[in-house]
C-alpha cells in the first residue's frame, strides 16, 4: 500500500517548523479561506458545507451543514458557536494533537463558521488537563486577533474540569454556563435553545477545522474524497499493538488492513485479536473485520460504530475480560449519576467484571452481565450508558469463552500482563 492513499489536509503542516504559529500557517495558505468566505453570503457558505457532505467528526456523524441550517431565523439576539474540544474517550487522540500542531486551522474554521451562522461570540471548550494545548490555543487566538483577522468576533477558550460527561453537548453547555456538567432533556435542542438559552451550534474540533479546506477546495472537491455517503478525509488514530502508532489522515472508507499496512502491521511476532473502530465506547471488532470500510455505513453494517476513528489494536496476548473491565472502571467513575440505568448499571457491571477478571465469577454472573448491559443500552439519559454497555455485549459475543474462563481462572494467569506490555524490557531493565 502506497502512502499516496493518505490525504494530508489537516495534518499537512504538522512537520513544518513552528507549525503552531501564525507565520507558518499563513505561509501555507492560512486564513485565505476566511478571506474568501467573507466574499460569500452566509446562505451560500451553509449550502457549500451541506453540499460537501461533511459529517460531524465527533462520533455521531450528523451532517454539519444541516446542523447549521437548523438555527432559527435571526431575531436580533445573540447566537453562539461552541467547539467541543473535550476529547475524553479512551483511545481517542486526534483533536488534541490537531490543536497542538496547528491551532490556527481551528481558529480559522471558527471564524468562518461564526460568519456563516451569524455569530459574534464563539467558545472552544477544552479538556482542562491538557494545559499545554490550552496555552497554545490562547496564543493562536491572540495572534489572530492582534493581526486583525477576526474582526469583531470574540473567541473564548474555556478549560473544563475534566469530566467525560462534558463531551455530551448539552452537559458541555451546562458546564460552560457554570453549572455541574449533566445532560439536558431534549428537545429543546441546542440549535433552538443552547448556550444561555440562545440558538447554538455545537461541533467537534475536527469538524470545524475541516471547514477552511472546504471553502478553499470547494464542496465538490471534498465530496469527491471518501465514499458516497461518508465524504471527505479524517484522522485515524492507531494505538496499541501496532508497529508505528500515530495519526493517519486518510479518506473515509479506508480499511484497517490498509491502515495497518501503512503503520507497519501488528507488532512483530504477533497477530490481531480484537480492535475498536471508534474508541472504547464502540462495539469490538475482530480480525474478520479487517476489510470493513471505515465509513459510517460500513462500520455500522459490521455491528459497530465509526465513532472518533480511535483504532485501538490488541494482539493475542491481551485478555478481553481485563480490557473491558478497565473500560467499565472508567465509565462507572465518569457516570454523572443523573439517570438510574447508567448510575446503577455501571456499578454492577464493575462488580461482575472484577469478579470475572479475578477468576471468581459464576455462570449466573455471565447472564447478569448480559442482562444489565441490555437494560442500560438505549435506556440511559445520554450515550454514556450505551458506551459502557457496548464493549460488554460485543465482548460476550466474540469472546464468550474468555468470560466463562473467568469463572475459574484469573485473567492474569491466562494472559500474563507482561506479555502484552509494549515496553516490558525497558521497564524491567
TrEMBL record:
It catalyses: a quinone + NADH + 5 H(+)(in) = a quinol + NAD(+) + 4 H(+)(out). NCBIfam families: nuoF_fam, PRK13596.1. Its cofactor is FMN; [4Fe-4S] cluster. Residues 321-366 form the NADH-ubiquinone oxidoreductase 51kDa subunit iron-sulphur binding domain. GO terms for molecular function: 4 iron, 4 sulfur cluster binding; FMN binding; metal ion binding; NAD binding; NADH dehydrogenase (ubiquinone) activity; NADH dehydrogenase activity; quinone binding. It is an enzyme of class 7 (translocase). NDH-1 shuttles electrons from NADH, via FMN and iron-sulfur (Fe-S) centers, to quinones in the respiratory chain. The keyword Cell wall biogenesis/degradation does not apply. GO terms for biological process: cellular respiration. Belongs to the complex I 51 kDa subunit family. Keywords: 4Fe-4S, Flavoprotein, FMN, Iron, Iron-sulfur, Metal-binding, NAD, Oxidoreductase, Quinone, Translocase. It comes from the Bacteria. This is NADH-quinone oxidoreductase subunit F. InterPro entries: ComplexI_51kDa_subunit (IPR050837), NADH-UbQ_OxRdtase_51kDa_CS (IPR001949), NADH-UbQ_OxRdtase_suF (IPR011537), Nuo51_FMN-bd (IPR011538), Nuo51_FMN-bd_sf (IPR037225), Nuop51_4Fe4S-bd (IPR019575), Nuop51_4Fe4S-bd_sf (IPR037207), Soluble_ligand-bd (IPR019554). The lineage of its organism: Bacteria, Bacillati, Actinomycetota, Actinomycetes, Micrococcales. Its EC number is 7.1.1.-. PANTHER family: NADH DEHYDROGENASE [UBIQUINONE] FLAVOPROTEIN 1, MITOCHONDRIAL (PTHR11780:SF10), NADH-UBIQUINONE OXIDOREDUCTASE FLAVOPROTEIN 1 NDUFV1 (PTHR11780).
Amino acid at each position: 500500500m502506497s502512502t499516496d492513499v493518505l490525504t494530508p489536509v489537516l495534518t499537512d503542516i504538522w512537520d513544518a517548523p513552528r507549525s503552531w504559529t501564525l507565520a507558518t500557517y499563513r505561509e501555507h495558505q492560512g486564513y485565505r479561506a476566511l478571506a474568501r468566505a467573507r466574499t460569500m453570503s452566509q446562505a451560500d457558505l451553509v449550502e457549500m458545507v451541506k453540499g460537501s457532505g461533511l459529517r460531524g467528526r465527533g462520533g455521531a456523524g450528523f451532517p454539519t451543514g444541516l446542523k447549521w441550517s437548523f438555527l432559527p431565523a435571526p431575531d436580533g439576539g445573540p447566537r453562539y458557536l461552541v467547539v467541543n474540544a473535550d476529547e475524553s474517550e479512551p483511545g481517542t487522540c486526534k483533536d488534541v494533537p490537531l490543536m497542538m500542531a496547528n491551532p490556527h486551522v481551528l481558529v480559522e474554521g471558527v471564524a468562518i463558521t461564526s460568519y456563516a451562522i451569524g455569530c459574534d461570540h464563539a467558545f472552544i471548550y477544552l479538556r482542562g488537563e491538557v494545559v499545554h494545548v490550552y496555552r497554545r490555543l490562547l496564543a493562536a487566538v491572540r495572534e489572530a486577533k492582534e493581526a486583525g483577522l477576526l474582526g469583531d468576533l470574540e473567541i473564548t477558550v474555556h478549560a473544563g474540569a475534566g469530566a467525560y460527561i462534558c463531551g455530551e453537548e448539552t452537559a458541555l453547555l451546562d458546564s460552560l454556563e457554570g453549572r455541574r456538567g449533566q445532560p439536558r432533556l431534549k428537545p429543546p435542542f441546542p440549535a433552538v435553545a443552547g448556550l444561555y438559552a440562545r440558538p447554538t451550534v455545537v461541533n467537534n474540533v475536527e469538524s470545524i477545522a475541516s471547514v477552511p479546506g472546504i471553502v478553499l477546495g470547494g464542496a465538490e472537491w471534498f465530496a469527491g474524497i471518501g465514499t458516497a455517503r461518508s465524504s471527505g478525509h479524517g484522522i485515524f488514530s492507531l494505538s496499541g499493538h501496532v508497529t508505528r502508532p500515530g495519526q493517519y489522515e486518510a479518506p473515509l472508507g479506508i480499511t484497517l488492513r490498509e491502515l495497518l499496512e501503512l503503520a507497519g502491521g501488528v507488532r512483530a511476532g504477533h497477530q490481531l485479536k480484537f480492535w475498536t473502530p471508534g474508541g472504547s465506547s464502540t462495539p469490538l471488532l475482530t480480525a474478520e473485520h479487517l476489510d470493513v470500510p471505515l465509513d459510517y455505513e460500513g462500520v455500522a453494517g459490521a455491528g459497530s460504530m465509526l465513532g472518533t476513528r480511535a483504532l485501538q489494536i490488541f494482539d493475542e496476548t491481551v485478555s478481553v475480560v481485563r480490557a473491558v473491565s478497565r473500560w467499565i472502571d472508567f465509565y462507572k467513575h465518569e457516570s454523572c449519576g443523573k439517570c438510574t440505568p447508567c448510575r446503577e448499571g455501571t456499578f454492577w457491571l464493575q462488580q461482575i467484571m472484577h469478579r470475572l477478571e479475578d477468576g471468581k465469577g459464576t455462570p449466573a454472573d455471565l447472564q447478569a452481565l448480559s442482562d444489565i448491559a441490555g437494560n442500560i443500552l438505549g435506556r440511559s439519559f445520554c450515550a454514556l450508558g450505551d458506551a459502557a454497555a457496548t464493549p460488554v455485549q460485543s465482548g460476550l459475543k466474540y469472546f464468550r469463552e474468555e468470560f466463562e474462563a473467568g469463572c475459574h481462572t484469573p485473567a492474569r494467569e491466562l494472559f500474563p500482563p507482561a506479555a502484552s506490555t509494549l515496553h516490558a524490557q525497558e521497564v524491567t531493565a
